[in-house]
Write a structure and sequence with these properties.
Blueprint lengths: L1 H9 L22 H5 L27 E10 L3 E12 L2 E17 L8 E19 L2 E14 L2 E14 L6 E13 L1 E2 L2 E2 L5 E12 L4 E12 L6 E10 L3 E8 L7 E9 L2 E8 L8 E10 L1
Antiparallel strand pairs: 1-2, 1-16, 2-3, 3-4, 4-5, 5-6, 6-7, 7-10, 8-9, 10-11, 11-12, 12-13, 13-14, 14-15, 15-16
């Protein structure tokens, strides 16, 4: 049953979509355990190359080269791996991202009884992002994506892009951000083209330090709206960092039936960040566990 639910969530387009629905749900997965633990908003408050998944304009704030690996364990027999690298070229920040998602051992039945066969579903997203300052403290960014999906004997490919804006330090510690993601199209998959899960993200983050106690705090909030779905999602999250080494995080996201709370922690040692996020999920679908390694070349 869990596999059937996963397949439905990720690939409703294989046998046709109902009006107002999108496919390629793997594009909705969070990129980076820190962002997921902070309610998976990401459009603001992102301080590393994971910005490429939420708001590419935030890449302008990170001057160091970075490498990233993330493993997402979601639902039963569904896993996603994400790789990223950021660097500067010709004075512009660039970030490369790769996302592979797989559902294994999906059973095939045409009559009641034992499964006649099994197959796997595969999804891929390769991206390149950049950003540029267009005015004092105002940055714009763009991400271009190559997309691929394969299920059973059917496959399709397509292209998408994201655009984002961020205004940093509106007042000291306060940042604003907005992005539109997953604009584009796919080739036909069996009988129809899969619709991308386009969405709008807006948010604000505020950071304040307490040097005497070695604590640093970040709070963020925002809204997310998928263009082909009714309703919207409210996000709020907070992070406490001690001595720039240990972080505790928590968040809440509204508008979903199966999830609401997010939690996690982070450890930083020299140039290596280890982040973990846990998202409890209802209805026996299996909780989400996300682990991320980021190495910063300083």
């Amino acid at each position: 049953m869990k596999k059937i639910i996963c397949v439905f969530l990720l690939a409703t387009s294989l046998f046709g979509q109902s009006a107002g629905n999108s496919g390629l749900a793997f594009l909705k997965f969070g990129f980076g355990a820190r962002n997921v633990a902070l309610s998976d908003l990401g459009v603001v408050g992102t301080n590393d190359l994971t910005a490429l998944n939420y708001n590419p304009a935030d890449l302008a704030a990170e001057k160091n080269n970075q490498l990233l690996f993330t493993h997402n364990s979601l639902f039963t027999d569904l896993s996603a791996e994400m790789f990223g690298a950021s660097f500067n070229l010709w004075g512009l920040p660039l970030a490369l991202g790769i996302n592979t998602t797989n559902i294994s051992d999906i059973e095939v039945r045409t009559t009641p009884g034992p499964a006649e066969a099994t197959f796997s579903a595969h999804y891929f997203n390769g991206s390149i992002s950049t950003a540029h300052e267009i005015a004092g403290n105002l940055y714009a960014g763009v991400t271009f994506k190559y997309l691929y999906e394969n299920m059973y004997s059917d496959d399709a490919e397509g292209y998408g892009f994201d655009i984002g804006l961020t205004y940093q330090k509106l007042v000291e510690g306060l940042n604003l951000g907005a992005s539109v993601r997953n604009l584009g199209s796919m080739n036909i998959l069996r009988s129809e083209s899969t619709k991308l899960p386009a969405d709008l993200l807006i948010g604000a983050s505020y950071n304040f330090a307490m040097p005497d106690s070695k604590f640093d705090f970040t709070v963020l909030t925002g809204l997310q709206k998928y263009t082909l779905e009714d309703g919207s999602h409210f996000h709020i999250g907070g992070e406490a960092v001690y001595n720039n080494m240990f972080a505790l995080r928590a968040g809440y996201v509204g508008g979903y039936d199966s999830k609401s709370l997010t939690t996690g922690f982070g450890i930083k040692w020299i140039g290596l960040n280890l982040d973990y996020a846990y998202v409890p999920v209802k209805y026996g679908l299996g909780d989400s566990h996300i682990i991320t390694f980021i190495y910063t070349f300083e």
